Every structure is written in structure tokens, then in C-alpha cells.
Amino acid sequence: MDAVRSSAVREAAARTFGELLERHEREIFAYALRLTGARADAEDLYQETFLAAFRAWPPPRRDHERAWLYRIATNKAIDAARRRPALVSVEDLSLAAPERDGVTVLDLANAIRLLPAGQRAAFVLHAVEGRPYREVAAVLDCTEEAARTRVSDATKKVRRQIE
Predict the structure, then answer these.
(1) Strand pairing partners for 100?
(2) Does domain 25-162 have CATH number 3.40.430.10?
(3) More exposed terminus of the chain, fewer Cβ within 10 Å: N or C?
(4) Of the candidates 163, 142, 143, 140, which has an alpha carbon nearest to the alpha carbon of residue 35?
(5) Before 58, cis peptide (omega within 30)?
(6) pLDDT at 56
(7) DSSP secondary structure letters along 85-100
(8) For the chain, which residues make up each domain, given as ranges?
(9) How many CB atoms lie within 10 A of CB 128?
């Protein structure tokens, strides 16, 4: 009887994880692409994120799965950035940073690439994806004020780079 219950629990958890994957896979991949700047690196980050999420399943807070996935992706991206700098491939520039206000996509992508990993994550979440500061804070595991400071510092650095 325990074997049957255990099997049913594993199956229900896998089904629930599968639903989580289906619900968030596109936005997590887009976030990974913006963080890394290259499709191949984004694919790796995406896979590492969901593998880590599966290994840690279930999430610590059931109603905050999305923020949990963003935090995992951010931490994995920071780890990867420590190992090597990210470069944006020419083919992926338009996906990594949309063109605005006469600033070339290449200028913006390079400016974002030069940011420290924590500021880059905060900038991408807020300025590029439009996430509110409370969500940026939840993803980066910091206070809302710290998230605002990271975005502000990153924005100043990006502006200096593209001027």
C-alpha cells in the first residue's frame, strides 16, 4: 500500500511540476536570454533553472512559484557570470534588447553586459521586463529599497555607457 501511495505522490508532484514548467517556460527562457545575451547560454541557464527547481521541488512557498523560478534563474546566472563574462551574439541582439530612442540595440546590449551580475538582473527585471520593485526584491532576495537602489545604479551606468 505504501508503494502505491508513494508512486501516486511522485506522479502528482511530477504532474504539478510539469504544469509549472508549461506555465513559466517561455518567460523564464526570455529572462535567461536577457540575462545571458546569447541563445546557447540562455538555453543552458533555462535547463539549469528547471533542473534545480525539480530537484528542490516543492517550492518553499506554494503561491510564489514564479518568483522562486526567477530567483533560481538569477542565482544560476550570477554563478555563470562569475565563471565567464556574457556576450550577446549578433543574431540575438534584437531579442536581448529592443531598440529605443535612437540608441542602437548593440549599444544597449553592451551597456547591459557591462553591469555587475546583480545590477544586471535587477535592471533586466525592472527596466526591460517591467516587473515591479517588490517582485524584483523577491527574485533577488533583498529588500524593496535595495532593489530600487540596484535598478537606479544600473540605470545610471547604462545611461553613461550609451551617451
Answers:
(1) 103
(2) no
(3) N
(4) 140
(5) yes
(6) 81
(7) -----GGGHHHHS--B
(8) 25-162
(9) 17
Report phi then psi at 65, rounded to 5. Answer: -65, -40
Predicted confidence (pLDDT) at residue 86 exceeds the cutoff of 50: no
Segment 74-80 shows an average pLDDT of 85
Interval 131-151: pLDDT, tens: 889 888 988 889 999 999 999
How far is 33 from 77, CA to CA, in rounded Å?
10
Long-range contacts of 106-113 (CB under 8 A, 24+ apart): 107/161, 107/162, 108/158, 108/162, 109/37, 110/161, 111/157, 111/158, 111/161, 111/162, 112/34, 112/37, 112/158, 113/37, 113/85, 113/86, 113/87, 113/88
pLDDT digits (tens, 9 = 90+) for 42-66: 999 999 998 898 888 777 677 778 8
- pLDDT, tens digit, 9 for 90 and up, residues 92-117: 655 555 555 666 777 888 888 889 98
> 161 Cβ partners below 8 Å, 6+ apart?
107, 110, 111, 114
Pair 50, 21: CB distance under 8 Å? yes
Cα 163 to the center of its chain, rounded Å: 27
> Helix (H, G, I), strand (E, B), or coil: what is residue 34?
helix
